[in-house]
Structure to design on (114 residues):
C-alpha cells in the first residue's frame, strides 16, 4: 500500500515541470479591482466633499440654503469664529445652526410654482 502511495505521488510530478507564477501577476486582479473602485467610487466622492467644503466656506448673508434636516431658510448672519449661522425660516423665526448642517444652496428656479 505504501509503495502505491509513493507511485501516485511520483507520477503526478513526473510530467512537465510546473511554471512558478510571479507574485506580481497573482496580485494583478486585486490591483485592477482597486483601480476600478478608486475611479468609480473614491475619486468622485472626494470631489463632491471638496465642493461641499468650498460651498460652506463661501456662505454669505441673504443666501437661501437647505439644511441636512430639510429646513429651508435665508442666512441672516454668519459667525466666522465658531462656524454658526443664523437662518431666517419665517418672518419672525430665526434659528442658529452649525455651518456644517447646511446641505446645499437652494436653487432659485427649483420648487417655485408661483
Amino acid at each position: 500500500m505504501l509503495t502505491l502511495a509513493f507511485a501516485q505521488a511520483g507520477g503526478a510530478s513526473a510530467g512537465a515541470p510546473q511554471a512558478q507564477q510571479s507574485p506580481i501577476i497573482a496580485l494583478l486582479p486585486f490591483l485592477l479591482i482597486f483601480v476600478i473602485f478608486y475611479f468609480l467610487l473614491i475619486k468622485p466622492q472626494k470631489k463632491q466633499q471638496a465642493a461641499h467644503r468650498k460651498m460652506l466656506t463661501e456662505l454669505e448673508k441673504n443666501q437661501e440654503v437647505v439644511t441636512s434636516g430639510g429646513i429651508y431658510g435665508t442666512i441672516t448672519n454668519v459667525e466666522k469664529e465658531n462656524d454658526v449661522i443664523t437662518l431666517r425660516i419665517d418672518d419672525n423665526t430665526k434659528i442658529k445652526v452649525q455651518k456644517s448642517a447646511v446641505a446645499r444652496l437652494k436653487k432659485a428656479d427649483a420648487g417655485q410654482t408661483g
About this structure: The longest helix spans residues 23-57. The two ends are 93 Å apart (CA to CA). Helices lie at 2-13, 23-57. The chain has two domains: 24-58, 60-105.
